């Protein structure tokens, strides 16, 4: 880790120490350290309100990390498209790393995080990205007819519901991360790169 990264605050708010967080938060930090070799800054920064962080994590974990209706790569594509549109540095960088890992394609993952139209996505992923952009940019204009392109690429009701929930989760999480200036961990920049 660089000296600059070590000295840069990871949030606009003070970040609690381990002895200041609920036991459930400390256990999650330990699991993250064991699994990734670091604790994601979003886990540390949101622990200011430990119980609220754990509630957020429960839903986030259910949508992104459990067996679902969309593939891991599709969910991470949504994460980077929405985060790129919202200008959320933390989520674009951290989920860009996850998309690189799940897709095995660093080039496409990097392009999708900046401008998904340049990523040359297959039809299903293109439809997912288009819908994610529509729901992110103009939620008041979304109608039943906007589901047609998703149906045309074979998506069923369960996949569409999960897609909408993942888009919603990232729009909310982007706003929290951006409002409080969350800084991505240095480790994300080099993850899953050839």
UniProtKB/TrEMBL annotation:
Keyword Cell cycle belongs to the record: no
- Keyword terms: Oxidoreductase, Peroxidase
Span of domain Carboxymuconolactone decarboxylase-like: 53-114
Q: Which InterPro entries match?
A: AhpD-like, AhpD_core, CMD-like, Uncharacterised_peroxidase-rel
Gene3D superfamilies from the xrefs? AhpD-like (1.20.5.810)
Question: Which Pfam families has this protein been placed in?
Answer: CMD (PF02627)
GO MF, one term, reads:
peroxiredoxin activity
Q: Which NCBIfam families match?
A: ahpD_dom, peroxid_rel
Protein's recorded name: Putative peroxidase-related enzyme
Q: What is the lineage of its organism?
A: Bacteria, Bacillati, Actinomycetota, Actinomycetes, Micrococcales
């Amino acid at each position: 880790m660089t000296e600059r990264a070590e000295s840069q605050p990871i949030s606009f708010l003070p970040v609690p120490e381990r002895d200041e967080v609920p036991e459930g938060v400390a256990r999650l930090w330990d699991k993250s350290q064991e699994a990734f070799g670091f604790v994601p800054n979003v886990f540390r920064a949101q622990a200011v309100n430990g119980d609220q962080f754990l509630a957020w994590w429960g839903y986030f974990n259910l949508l992104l990390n459990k067996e679902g209706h969309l593939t891991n790569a599709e969910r991470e594509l949504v994460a980077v498209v929405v985060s790129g549109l919202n200008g959320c540095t933390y989520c674009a960088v951290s989920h860009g790393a996850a998309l690189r890992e799940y897709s095995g394609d660093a080039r496409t993952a990097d392009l999708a995080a900046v401008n998904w139209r340049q990523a040359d996505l297959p039809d299903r992923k293109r439809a997912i990205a288009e819908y994610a952009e529509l729901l992110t940019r103009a939620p008041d204009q979304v109608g039943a007819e906007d589901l047609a392109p998703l149906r045309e690429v074979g998506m069923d009701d369960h996949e569409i519901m999960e897609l909408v929930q993942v888009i919603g989760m990232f729009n909310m999480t982007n706003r929290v991360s951006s409002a409080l200036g969350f800084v991505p961990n240095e480790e994300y920049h080099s993850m899953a790169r050839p």
